[in-house]
Amino acid sequence: MTKKEALKLFEERKVRTVWDDSNEKWYFSIVDVVSILTDSVDGRKYWNKLKQRLKKEGNETVTDCHQLKMVALDGKRRMTDVADTEQLFRILSCGICNPAQYYYKDL
Q: What is the spatial distance between Cα 2 and Cα 20, in angstroms, rounded to a whole number?
């Protein structure tokens, strides 16, 4: 698998990505995306809790996630959960929420 790593910007924050030539897909760090969308201080913890909840519910999207080595904040390459675009949208539709969204739900 030939890979090309890149940083993408979303909401002026970095999302780690990897291009997979053999599958012709971008893979995104789920933790990075969750951190941005939830405005979470610790996106890793948020993702771990969400992942546990989804597994308990029998959601197969979580079991289809891959892990790839990506450069972490400390500069070391660590395994992190990644998803392609389709998987990412499925995960996001399962329960990612920003506390600010509750305000709009009550209106």
A: 6
In eight-state DSSP terms, residue 14 is E
Residue 98: DSSP 8-state: -
Measured at the CA of 43, the angle between CA 37 and CA 49, to 5 degrees, comes to 105
- DSSP assignment of 27-91 equals EEEHHHHHHHHHT-S-HHHHHHHHHHHHHHTT-HHHHT-EEEEEE-TTS-EEEEEEE-HHHHHHH
Q: What is the pTM of this model?
A: 0.78
pLDDT at residue 103 is higher than 70: no
Residues in Cβ contact with 84 at an 8 Å cutoff, skipping those fewer than 6 apart: 23, 25, 26, 27, 28
